[in-house]
Design a protein that fits this description.
With 185 residues, this protein is an alpha+beta fold. It is 22% helix and 34% strand.
């Protein structure tokens, strides 16, 4: 298990179907080591603080194994993740699990819930549905111990409990709650 890349991005305004959208989903790999504070990777920005960022969604991780499900090629940061990792598939990860990467200790908090900005970036209107169907969400992390990390760092995976809430199960619970809310009106 290792960290393949650290990815950051700034705000970008894009025009989509006559609407101007500001997003932070366009992230690129950086060189060297990077500080990680309580609110995320130094130099990274999120545009939608209601759904991304903050102390419980400070860092977003996505695995190369999950990328491979979508096809043979990928670019680190393509799904807007801060950390592209190897050896930790999101289907096996549970809320509360921890990852020690370099000098940073991170705790899994939630799946990434896909939005239209991901579909726009991927250039595929139905990509959100594909992302849901794949059940390969990646996961958000809170920063337990601040420090520095960099591409190539080993990942020490710490299981929180034998049968925790998996990332796909947490995403399904989110979807079920929203469907029930819509039915109630």
């Amino acid at each position: 298990m290792r960290l393949l890349s650290v990815n950051i991005g700034g705000l970008r305004a894009i025009d989509h179907e006559g609407v101007r959208i500001v997003t932070g989903i366009y992230k690129l790999p950086i060189e060297g080591r990077r500080p990680v504070g309580r609110l995320g990777v130094d130099g990274d920005v999120q545009a939608d603080s209601d759904h991304h960022g903050g102390p419980d969604r400070a860092v977003y991780a996505y695995s190369v194994e999950d990328y491979r499900w979508f096809g043979p090629t990928f670019t680190p940061g393509q799904f807007g993740e801060n950390l592209t990792i190897e050896g930790v598939e999101s289907a096996a990860v549970c809320v509360g699990d921890r990852l020690q990467i370099g000098g940073v200790l991170l705790e899994v908090t939630a799946p990434r819930i896909p939005c239209r900005k991901l579909a726009i970036k991927m250039g595929e209107v139905a990509f959100v549905q594909r992302f849901w169907a794949a059940r390969r969400f990646g996961f958000y992390l809170r920063v337990v111990e601040t420090g520095e990390l960099g591409a190539g760092d080993a990942i020490r995976y710490i299981r929180s409990q034998p049968r925790g809430l998996t990332i796909p199960a947490a995403a399904q619970a989110y979807l079920d709650a929203n469907v029930a809310r819509e039915k109630l009106g």
